[in-house]
């Protein structure tokens, strides 16, 4: 060791020996007391903002305190709070209060939004806010007092400010506060907290943060403030990428389809419905568990029950929706593409070129139309439907609003009036040479949330359970759990679904008796799961009709209704039917909405090689159903992208070592390529760019 090093070491030893620990603690105790004494306003701001964010996590994802989310929120609040020290003490309140109001508004919006979509709000969805005007009743039905509990924080902060003002707090602070020093100290503290948080992140955390696929996870791990900042940045980046990221997206697109095996073998369903008319029935919120469900021996959906027995019925079918719910289903069904990662296709990307079932059939001479008893502006359908390939859109303006249920025209009246329109369309197609056939989509409305309440004359289904037993006074014992407590909304949903099924049955009775439907393919699907909470579904699944109580874990039929059970429960029916009963049987292969176009294309003898789904009869049990949040389902496993874990399904013993990784890669590719196609309009710019050299543009 050199003499210089020895000298430094000796000096260090002397400092250690001379260190007075008691004096050090006393000095820092004094500093802490002084900081608390002269920074009450700042500390109140930090604690109240932190509490507000914690309450949001509690009332949404049930994570009041999560180490990651809490400390990321703390880091953000400290960094935001530090800027107040750029102002004089008396003006700091205005800054603190403004920031707190912004955080409060952010939390209220996210709380209300989460009750609708079980996800958090996005800047990319701001263009969709106009849709709330069309579903005002649904919004008010979802409002709870807890959505506004965040207002208590700015109120409390204002009260604290008034008390401090009366106590001559600010005059005292102005005499001792060194604002520049405090600004740097707080911003350094916030930076240190943020750095520590970042150092704990895994590669998976970073990947999910950048892709913003699973918002619940990001809020849990990164906190609501960082989530919202990241979402805003992602929204800006997505707009910039439209301008600057095209070359990379086009290269991914070209490579993907060059390497993709698109070989399509003929099967027993090839061309079976060629030259048939096509009617697609978009059944609002109809779920698979309703099929064959009985209460008091009465079927909830008797008409669907009858239909599935004489049709090709897919009982393991899943919608693949994101924030666009019904509009996402329309898009994915028609195009075999996934919902966009930011915003909604119908609102943000309606002006793109898409190859759809409608455009493909229109090229074959079909007259294409859509029908819906709501306003044409709902989900921007008046702009999006022409780009999906519909020639005409029969919206609310075409109908007489003579009977209303829920959000608008009742399904009963809607079907009755639509019959007349379709009869005229059939005559036009039969007698005129311009069109050879027709293809139409009928979008129902009555089963939309808010579901029927007591007193509505259409709610004639009894959800109380009649035991047949008598009490001491000789009155029948009736359990009304489905009308009370946690299951009241579920009870209303069942009543509403029964009404929707009744209206559907009336229309199908007309179809069966009318010759104009003799050569018509009907495709019926539930557009998405009912917007009910996991606890409501779980309570229903574990409701014991014999006792009128919830089953306990000791009951052998008790279902542990966890996250995976809930996700697997969100199936909706897919039904393919014609009056001549050309196809029938039950199909239980796992299938997603994205697989509808390829499956139907084979039956109608048309083709879209850019579809990202599969003809289910080609892949059968080897299918992978990808969800918009990065989750996926196969016949062996359900994978949870947010936690990087999976649930092996019943009857499956082992998985190959690479099984999950291979399908994760597949899911990521599907989501990335689909998003590229939508955002960068790659069908228009890549598929049709060589139109002069033989490329054909779908009109």
Structure description:
The structure is a single chain. The protein has 699 residues and is α/β, with parallel strands linked by helices. 49% of the residues lie in helices and 11% in strands. It contains 25 helices and 22 strands. An eight-stranded mixed sheet has the order 7-6-10-1-13-16-4-17, with helices on both faces. The longest helix is centred in the first third of the chain and has 30 residues. The radius of gyration is 30 Å and the shape is globular. The protein starts with a helix and ends in a 12-residue tail after the last helix. The C terminus is likely disordered.
Q: What's the gist of this structure?
A:
The protein has 699 residues and is α/β, with parallel strands linked by helices.
Keywords, please?
alpha/beta, 4-stranded antiparallel sheet, 25 helices, disordered C terminus
Q: Helix content range of the residues, please?
A: 40-55%
The tally of strands reads 22
Radius of gyration: 30 Å
Proportion of residues in β-strands? 5-15%
Give the spatial strand order of the biggest sheet: 7-6-10-1-13-16-4-17
Largest sheet: 8 strands, mixed
Global morphology = globular
- Unreliable stretches, pLDDT < 50, 5 or more residues? 695-699
**Class from helix and strand fractions:** alpha/beta
Distance between the termini: 83 Å
Arithmetic mean pLDDT: 87
Supply the number of helical segments: 25
């Amino acid at each position: 060791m050199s003499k210089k090093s020895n000298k430094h070491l000796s000096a260090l030893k002397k400092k250690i020996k001379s260190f007075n620990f008691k004096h050090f603690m006393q000095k820092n105790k004094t500093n802490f007391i002084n900081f608390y004494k002269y920074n009450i306003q700042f500390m109140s701001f930090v604690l109240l903002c932190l509490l507000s964010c914690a309450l949001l996590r509690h009332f949404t994802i049930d994570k009041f305190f999560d180490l990651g989310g809490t400390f990321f929120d703390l880091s953000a609040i400290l960094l935001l709070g530090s800027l107040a020290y750029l102002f004089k003490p008396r003006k700091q309140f205005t800054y603190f209060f403004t920031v707190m109001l912004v955080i409060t508004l952010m939390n209220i919006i996210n709380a209300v939004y989460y009750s609708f979509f079980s996800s958090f709000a996005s800047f990319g969805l701001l263009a969709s806010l106009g849709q709330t005007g069309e579903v005002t009743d649904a919004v008010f039905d979802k409002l709870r007092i807890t959505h506004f509990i965040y207002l208590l924080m700015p109120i409390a902060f204002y009260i604290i400010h008034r008390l401090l003002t009366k106590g001559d707090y600010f005059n005292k602070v102005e005499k001792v506060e060194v604002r520049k020093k405090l600004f740097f100290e707080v911003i350094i503290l916030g930076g240190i907290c943020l750095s520590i948080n970042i150092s704990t992140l895994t590669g998976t955390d970073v990947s999910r943060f950048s892709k913003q696929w699973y918002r619940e996870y990001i809020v849990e791990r990164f906190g609501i403030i960082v989530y919202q900042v990241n979402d805003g940045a992602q929204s800006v980046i997505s707009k910039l990428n439209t301008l600057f990221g095209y070359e990379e997206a086009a290269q991914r697109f070209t490579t993907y389809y060059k390497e993709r095996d698109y070989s399509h073998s003929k099967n027993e369903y090839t061309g079976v419905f060629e030259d048939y008319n096509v009617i697609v029935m978009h059944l609002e919120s109809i779920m698979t568990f309703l099929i064959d469900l009985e209460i008091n021996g009465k079927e909830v959906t008797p008409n669907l029950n009858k239909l599935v027995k004489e049709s090709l019925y897919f009982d393991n079918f899943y919608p693949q929706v994101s924030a666009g719910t019904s509009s996402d289903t329309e898009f994915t069904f028609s195009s075999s593409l996934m919902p966009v990662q930011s915003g909604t296709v119908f609102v943000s990307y309606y002006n793109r070129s898409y190859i759809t079932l409608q455009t493909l059939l229109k090229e074959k001479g079909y007259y294409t139309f859509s029908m819906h008893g709501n306003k044409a502006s709902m989900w921007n359908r008046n702009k999006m439907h022409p780009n999906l390939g519909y020639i005409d859109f029969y919206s609310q303006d075409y109908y007489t609003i003579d009977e209303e249920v829920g959000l608008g025209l009742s399904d009963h009246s809607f079907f009755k009036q639509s019959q007349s329109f379709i009869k005229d369309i059939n005559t036009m197609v039969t007698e005129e040479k311009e069109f050879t056939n027709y293809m139409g989509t009928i979008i129902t409305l009555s089963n939309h949330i808010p579901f029927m309440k007591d007193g509505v004359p259409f709610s004639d289904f009894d959800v109380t359970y009649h035991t047949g037993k008598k009490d001491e006074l000789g009155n029948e014992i009736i359990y009304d759990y489905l009308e009370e407590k946690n299951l009241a909304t579920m009870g209303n949903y069942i009543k509403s679904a029964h009404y929707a099924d009744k209206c559907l049955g009336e229309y199908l009775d007309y179809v069966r008796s009318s010759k104009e439907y003799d050569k018509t393919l009907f495709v019926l699907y539930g557009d998405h799961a009912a917007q009910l909470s996991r606890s409501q579904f779980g309570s229903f699944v574990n409701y014991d009709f014999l006792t009128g109580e919830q089953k306990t874990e000791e009951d052998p039929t008790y279902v542990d209704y966890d996250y995976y059970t809930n996700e697997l429960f969100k199936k909706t029916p897919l039904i393919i039917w014609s009056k001549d009963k050309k196809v029938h049987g039950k199909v239980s292969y796992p299938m997603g909405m994205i697989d509808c176009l390829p499956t139907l294309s084979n039956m109608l003898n048309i083709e879209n090689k850019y579809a990202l789904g599969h003809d289910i009869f080609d892949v059968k049990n080897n299918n992978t159903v990808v969800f918009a949040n990065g989750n996926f389902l196969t016949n062996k496993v359900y994978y949870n992208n947010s936690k990087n874990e999976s649930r092996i399904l019943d009857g499956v013993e082992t998985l190959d070592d690479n099984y999950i990784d291979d399908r994760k890669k597949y899911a990521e590719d599907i989501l990335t390529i689909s998003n590229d196609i939508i955002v960068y309009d790659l069908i228009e710019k890549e598929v049709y760019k060589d139109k002069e050299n033989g490329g054909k543009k779908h009109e």
